[in-house]
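As promised in the previous annual report, we have extended the structural survey to additional targets. Below is the entry for NHL repeat containing protein.
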Amino acid sequence: MQTGNRMFRTEVVAGWGQLPEGQAFGYTHGIVTDSADNVYVLHTGKPNVAVFTRSGEWIRSWSVEGIGDNAHGFYLQKEQTGEYVYMTDCGLGTVVKATLDGEVVLRLDPPDLPEVYSGEKPYKPTDVAVAPNGDIYVTDGYGQHWIHQYNAEGERIRSWGGTGRAPGQLKSPHGISVKLTDGEPELYVADRGNHRIQVFTLTGEHKQFIDNDMDMPCSFYFHGGLMLFPDLHSRVTVFDAKDDTLVAHLGEDLLAYKQPGWPNLPKAYYRANRFSSPHAVCVDSVGDVYVAEWISDGRITKLRRL
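The corresponding structure token record, generated without further manual editing, is:
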């Protein structure tokens, strides 16, 4: 089964990524690839990270202390000392950096901002990005709608945001990424509740809104001059990263998110080449696409680039 268009066409790889007996996916929230093209899936089951080869064979599973039932953000960073994953738990307010075997090497303290956070106004981090200089950016996508910048040692530098639609204001800044394709690096924020992308400098200055050809952007993945992002309302969108214009929608289903009970629909509804609630996307070294969906018992799809 195929999906896409003549500019970006893919086919579904049937049956990719099966867990061994005794393990089961929870909500599949994050997916990343390492330099060997192994694929890591973050989900809310236990253990909550599953590792596969690019052909779909299970390698191992592991968990990290402090990442539990609300495991959410997942980002892989290649650094001089190796490769690391950054993870968030939006229920526990946890952000950690770990090795590819799950050893924690850094924990970020919640932002000390009493004017923003209290018992009635919790901190709920949803995603992480890392700049070329090592600074770490965390989105509070389910709490008070802020972005927090830390240095590589975990010391907070600055914060900005707050709920609203004006430049610099946010409503569910669900995902964040550093765009490196042209000129100075920029922060791309999936301002999901406002149905738009918001672009900032690395110091938090608003640059522009992008709101064409998208619905509810969740996060970003840059690869080969393209920017891919899951639209929670039932498709994966591909943009030309140079000018942020539409290349293709993958697996678009205009009815899925309108169904009663969405995102947990009857199994008979799902089709291999149509998405229901895509939440994360990544691309391997040969251009194949992996999609994780926000569904209670998980759904992972591999799309082979044609």
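The domain at 2-305 is CATH 2.120.10.30 (Neuraminidase). Residues 162 and 169 are 5 Å apart (CA to CA). These points will be discussed at the next consortium meeting with the crystallography subgroup.
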